[in-house]
Amino acid sequence: MSKGPHIQIRNVTRQFQVNGGSLTALDDVSLDVAEGEFVTIVGASGCGKSTLLRLGAGLDTTYKGAINHAGEPVDGPSLDRGMVFQEPRLFPWLTIERNIALGLENSGLPKGEKKALVEQHLELVGLTGFAKAYPHQLSGGMAQRAGIARGLVNRPNVLFLDEPFGALDAITKTRLQDELQEIWAKERITMVLVTHDVDEAVYLGDRVVIMSPRPGRIREIVPVGLPRPRVRTSAALVQVRNRVLDSLNNTTQPVPQQAARNIGESSPALRPVIAAVG
Ligand SMILES: Nc1ncnc2c1ncn2[C@@H]1O[C@H](COP(=O)(O)OP(=O)(O)O)[C@@H](O)[C@H]1O
Ligand SMILES: [Mg+2]
């Protein structure tokens, strides 16, 4: 059993030096993610979503504040944390199975075990039969499935996804959202997914984190509170979506960070939504 939150982000501030000045990409951001939870993060371009994800994954370690994963400080990348990017980042000269096997390079596992894991994850993402194919032979959706397989092949207990379906057409995107949700339910791992697609955020998330820009802050956390599988067009889901859209449209207004923190649980503003959907 886990003690405390699985991912704990406390008072994190990240500044970049730009043109001799200091740019605050994240300002005093706090977020707890429970074990096995599916959290989605939405916000306008430039509000610090990727910065937050990279920090959570340990790909960036220059920050003020504290970030813990299963109670341990995050001070670099770890095989326990997987990452999926918008572009699948496959090497064109390697077959799909070898691209996925790259994720296991530092695992220290024997060859046979690596092979079995690659096969298992090809199957998990529906790419059985494409092991020997090269990236240029795959559609965009299939390539992104390979990217997801590579992110999962080490069996991380948390997967960070940065706009993973942002470059896909609407039909492929919908299908991959469903597949990702099935993988999440089956593998029981924690997922943190960044998107600028509000429909995607409310369809997939247990909670939707809404960020506001300049400086990047968490404006509000909206619990979706609907059982799965969800119906994209259901009145209840549409209501949550409208709630998130309203909040996003207000993100140009400054918000006191303290007030934003645990709004999902207790805000009077949200009670009507929770009542409506719950
Ligand atoms: N390595 C970097 N150096 C300088 N500025 C950066 C760097 N990474 C991000 N930023 C700036 O931080 C802000 C947040 O960026 P980012 O996290 O990529 O936003 P998002 O993913 O929400 O679009 C932006 O203003 C961006 O220009
Ligand atoms: Mg980004």
In words, what does this structure look like?
By secondary structure, the protein is an alpha/beta fold. It has one domain: 3-Layer(aba) Sandwich (Rossmann fold), CATH 3.40.50.300. Helix content is 35%, strand content 24%. The protein has ten helices and ten strands. The strands form two sheets. A six-stranded mixed beta sheet has the order 6-7-8-3-9-10, sandwiched between helices. Strands 2-1-4-5 form a four-stranded antiparallel beta sheet, covered by helices on one side. The radius of gyration is 19 Å and the shape is globular. Residues 258-278 have low confidence and may be disordered. Magnesium ion is lined by residues 49-50, 162.
**CA-atom Rg in angstroms:** 19 Å
How is the quaternary structure best described?
Answer: single chain
Strand content: 15-25%
How many individual helices?
10
- The CATH superfamily label reads P-loop containing nucleotide triphosphate hydrolases
> In CATH terms, what is the architecture?
3-Layer(aba) Sandwich
Domain count:
1
Task: Provide the descriptors you would attach to this structure in a database record.
278 residues, alpha/beta, Rossmann fold, six-stranded mixed sheet, four-stranded antiparallel sheet, 10 helices, 35% helix, binds adenosine-5'-diphosphate, binds magnesium ion
